[in-house]
Amino acid sequence: MSAPRRLQLERTLLRQISRANRRFRLIEPDDLVMVCVSGGKDSWSLLDLLRRYERKLPYSFQIIAVNLDQGQPGFPVHVMPEYLAREGYAYRIITRDTYSVVKREIPEGKAYCSLCSRLRRGILYDVAVELGASKIALGHHRDDVIETLLLNQFYAGQLKAMPPKLRSDDGRNTIVRPLVLCGEAELAEYAALLEFPIIPCDLCGSQDNLKRVEVRELLAQLEQRNPGIRKNLLAAVGNVKPSHLLDPDLRRARWLERLAPARASAAARARPQSQLIPLSSLVRKP
Ligand code: SF4
Predict the structure, then answer these.
(1) Residue spans per domain, the chain
(2) Pocket around ligand 1: residues whose beta carbon is below 6 Å from it?
(3) Model-level pTM?
(4) Greater pLDDT, 138 or 3
């Protein structure tokens, strides 16, 4: 292992996690953070880095690693528990055969990922409640955020990316993405240097989402010609100018916001004198 490079990467990634944590208040004192570990490079890195991060903080939080075995053929069931136990992590392995459901519901030749991840999410949210986890940490990183931003614009006609922190619709779970400012290339290098036992996410035989692959290639091409494109796209998500967009709801909200102080002072001016508390009544009597 190249120790200086590993240390350099570790420092960079921890700095980015720390910045994200300060900016979005992802992890708070006494949190129980359930880290979803799929066996891919990103979730392994997240687990490892969060433990290192916790040691540097002035406050403490707990970590529990959770892996969902989805019943994919050839899933190496022994790999995760062996590694997690050896490294001293608290962990749970959950087994639910979502693979059969997905195979049954999705026509041959279509990508399974959308249904698969929805099923996985539902199960993991329930597990987090059972465990009493105050946060669910996912391994999405900067490149996932900007790819999602572009995918939503290109194919869904929406301007949205991935939130660093999100309360689930039913209010039971809080999802956090501590790697939101970390680059995929650095995470991949870190995972390789630390020799995490990577389990591929294609055991199910699903094609990776074709549109996401296209967007990834497009970004790589653009980045070659304009280094810094990814950084700028990420910055753009945090630097929105609502007045320069076309969403009528946003414009209305902004207009009402501007109007609010003027309305408040008009209301104060219009209030009858009798409603005003006389200053003399505030003075304590001897
Ligand atoms: S590649 Fe397979 S296991 Fe991974 S999300 Fe898609 S369907 Fe699920």
Answers:
(1) 3-237
(2) 112-113, 116-117, 201-202, 204, 206
(3) 0.86
(4) 138
